[in-house]
Amino acid sequence: MVDFSGMPHAVGYFAAARFDAEIRDCEVAGKVPPELTGAFYRLHADWLYPPNFRDDASLAADGYISMFRFRGGGPIDYRGRYVRTDRYRRQLAAHRQLYGYYRNPFTDDPEVRNLEDPGERTTANTTPVILAGKLYATKEDGLPYRIDPNTLESLGREDFGGAWRSQTFTAHPKLDPATGELVAFGYEANGMASREVFLAAFDATGRVVRPMRFEVPHTSMLHDIAITDRHVVIPGSSAVTSLERLREGRIHWGWDSTKQSYYGIVPRSGDAGAIRWFRGPERSIVHTANAWSEGNKVHVDLPMADGNTWPFFPDVHGAPFHMPPNTIRRMTFDLDSSSVEAEERVLFEQETTTFTRIDDRFIGRPHRYIFVQFADRARPFRATLPDDPRAQPVNSIARFDVRTGESRTYFAGEAHVVQEPCFVPRSARSAEGEGFLLATVHNLAAMRAELAIIDAGTMAETARIILPFRNASQVHGAWAGEGELPLE
After folding, report:
1. What letter does residue 315 receive in the DSSP assignment?
2. How far is it, in rounded angstroms, from Cα 252 to Cα 242?
């Protein structure tokens, strides 16, 4: 019998869901915009079996991919399935959890322990990625899994014909809308705790071009990158690891407040010898919003915090955990200067999450709007949450205007926890920010998942799609418009 009773934060709405699902003609409140034709994919983290260590990171939960299929204002269908990774299949065959701490194969059951290919234990639970007309489920600790875009069937791990020469593949590649290239990387590329990064681009046909390898100043979580038309920005934080740490049987990452943040400005031309490294103070850097070049200066907008934002990554010096606030900041790197110090300034004082999105048509170029979840504590919250800092009442979405400094907000509801929004332009020719936000919300009172459709200009809700069950928490989502995938 499966027993989740030892996970006090995974109760009520946040208990493991553990089922595949299909709904035809979803219930809809309001009017769905007729411009929405395509599919909204999401990846979730949902434990198939309880973790062997109750203090393990939720990042290690099994991957679950879902899809809302839109047909121009017509009926909307939903489908959700676990990603059938190698890890999923082995657990199911054994009827129990076989894997140990997040990204530490030394703690796995001996029958599945594989120190040569730690990527074999990935859960593929982070970001749906569309590449050359194919859909993938990705997670930064292994190779991606190809997914059928209609049935959501898992089609196996993908190494792109052997051209991807890294044990890992990022969950945050960046598509350049001007060239059609997808820039991707893998860190800890040649083994656990290594400093090596493999970076390359995919052309529009899916061919790997301009591969390069280099080492970072210290092994750190490199969860996200940003690109300009000429550079890739790789930010590293104070999250650290080592083989010694892993052999001692601990979770992959620890927090070292004595380690500085660092930033690699990497030429997209593939010249590893021209990389510039900048440094900054202790910072938690998880996601980026966008970057662009201005002469020989590179600017990056991103959420940052001044200390550890990971409750399950303990301080290596034993300091207690206190969640520092994330705020939207701008980093500037002067490539003409001999200084290695990064310039940092706060754009918005509002405390936010790290889940930022923009109008992706402006990736790598100057943008105006940033969309991000946040907890509006001035709003009423009439629901019960587990006593756990990982379950904050994130009930709102902000649209920040980086030109004017103004913001507009959307409130999901008094018993709702909102997930990362995804921007969909009204049309290919629409102005920046003219379109819709798709954001699922947890309705804790009704114990069900709902998809809010929000006008990105007014931040007013136009419709809500209602599912008759709970969904596991979403990590990231992606929109596929007509022609991007072979949708039925």
Report:
1. B
2. 8
- Amino acid (one-letter) located at 243: L
Task: Please state whether beta strands 208-215 and 77-82 pair in parallel, antiparallel, or not at all (unpaired).
Answer: unpaired
Phi, psi of 423 (to 5 degrees): -90, 135
Which uninterrupted H or E stretch holds 234? strand 231-236
DSSP class of 341: B
Task: Report how far residue 277's alpha carbon sits from residue 290's, in angstroms, rounded to the nearest whole number.
Answer: 19
Q: Is 245 helix (H, G, I), strand (E, B) or coil?
A: helix
Residues 117, 167 contacting (CB under 8 angstroms)? yes
Residue 392 has pLDDT above 80, yes or no: no
Return the C-alpha torsion angle 451, 102, 199, 167, nearest 10: -120
Neighbours of 204 (CB within 10 A): 12
DSSP state of 42: E
- Count Cα atoms within 13 angstroms, Cβ side, for 401: 13
| DSSP 8-state secondary structure symbol assigned to residue 217 | S
* Chain centroid offset of residue 262 CA: 20
Q: Which amino acid belongs to residue 153?
A: E
| DSSP 8-state secondary structure symbol assigned to residue 453 | E
Q: What is the dihedral of CA 463, 468, 474, 480, to 10 degrees?
A: -50
* DSSP string across 296-308: TEEEEEEEEBSS-
Taking residues 295-314, report their average pLDDT: 96
Q: Which amino acid is at 27?
A: E
Other CB atoms within 10 Å distance of the CB of residue 93: 9
* pLDDT tens digits for range 74-87: 999 999 999 999 99
CA-angle at 242, arms to 191 and 248, nearest 5°: 110
What is the value of pTM for the model shown?
A: 0.97
Nearest Cα residue to 57 out of 96, 104, 19: 104
At 24, give phi and psi (nearest 5°). -95, 140
- Within 13 Å of residue 211, how many CA atoms lie on the same side as its CB? 10
**DSSP count for the chain of H helices, then E strands:** 2, 33
Tokens of 339: 């200084």
pLDDT tens digits for range 315-367: 999 999 999 999 999 999 999 999 999 999 999 999 999 999 999 999 999 99
Tokens of 1: 């019998």
The sign of the torsion formed by the CA atoms of 125, 127, 128, 134 equals negative
